Amino acid sequence: MIENNLDIIKSEIFQLVKQYYNLYKQKDVFIPGESWVTFGGRVYDENEIIAAIDASLEFWLTEGRFSREFRELFGKYLGVRHVHLVNSGSSANLVCFSALTSPKLSDRRLLPGDEVISVASAFPTTVNPIIQNGMVPVFVDMDIGTYNANAEQLKAAITSNTKAIFLAHTLGNALPLDIIMDLVSKHNLWFIEDSCDALGSSYNGKMLGTFGHAAAFSFYPPHHMTMGEGGAVVTNNDELAPLLNSFRNWGRDCWCEPGKDNTCGKRFSIKMGDLPLGYDHKHIFSHIGYNLKPTDIQAAIGVEQIKKLPGFVKARKQNFTKIYEGLKKHEDIFILPEAYPGADVSWFGFLLTVREDAGFERIDIVKFLEAHKVRTRMLFAGNLLKHPGYKDIRYRQVSDLKNTNIIMERTFWIGVYPGLTDSMIDYMLSLFDKFRASK
Known about the structure:
Layout (H helix, E strand, L loop, with lengths): L1 H23 L21 H13 L6 H14 L3 E5 L2 H11 L15 E5 L4 H9 L3 E5 L10 H7 L4 E7 L8 H11 L2 E5 L7 E2 L2 E2 L6 E5 L12 E5 L5 H7 L48 H32 L6 E2 L7 E2 L4 E6 L7 H10 L24 E2 L4 H9 E5 L6 H16 L2
Parallel strand pairs: 2-3, 2-4, 3-13, 4-5, 5-8
Antiparallel strand pairs: 1-9, 6-7, 6-11, 8-9, 10-12, 12-14
């Protein structure tokens, strides 16, 4: 009787949510020049709100049934065996890299002073875990157009001290994976993919995030799908999987799901470290880890979002193509983005580099677009080595990072996210025409 009443009340709540959502969305009318055209944002309907409320009414809060469902759906989408949820893409990067320092990896563990290949034109949290774990980032230059690490400099960066490659697929565009995977195999390196901006992209038919030993994904609102805050760590490596789980879970040796005990069947019969025999396995810590877990409410939103993901990816590709075709006539003043050969890109954004002889600076077009309600973004840090927080870090660079500095000075991007309508894109393109006519 109680269950029936609860179901009836739930149904009434969900129906009201649907009514609220439909009424709320009526105010979303795009008015060119008055409404903002953003670079990214949430694309959702009443189902995400209902899912969040469903999880809230259950009030399990920490990882539960929605987390399990999301992990299964996400693993099937990518084709990976192991998925661990975290509270952000930045945390996902931290977990991926920190797991490589585990003593359980024996002579393959990363140690302070080891060199890790990266790029300076990155989001900080792709580089920060290298520094935070006491290793040395080795910066290679970028290619203008693909905006990923230069293949020849990747080869030149390798020394006897090189132990890993840790790179992001820039705005969803595949890294030179043919070169990277050859280097990884030849030199026995670890490879971590920051795929936070690349969900839905593939290379030669294989999903990005499945090439490395582990990969990080982000579900922050502007990304390909969202949980609000949230992220995931994935791997097909059975040795790494429990280590990834441990580092996001206080460093515990135990792998029990929340609310469960004695999954290993040896909870009170294990001897580890200098602890007494039979010390509770739930409170044995193999690593100096973190608590980076999400809530089940976030996972509930993710379950509904991943159902929409194929449509999101399709819309991003279509929006990118329309913008590309609209800006092709301006190629003499802008370098347009290009996919790496073999890549099928689910673009996170549309990158533009102002040519040196364009007759204007990046700041001019950026200010013009922003003044007309079109949001822009830089390519993240531009060059991390120019930022005050990185002034005193230990690092090595392979070249003068000429292209990285060009990106810092002349590159920006605009959105392609699924929330853009044709009228928004047409308005945005008209502004580039208007800007050029004014010069």
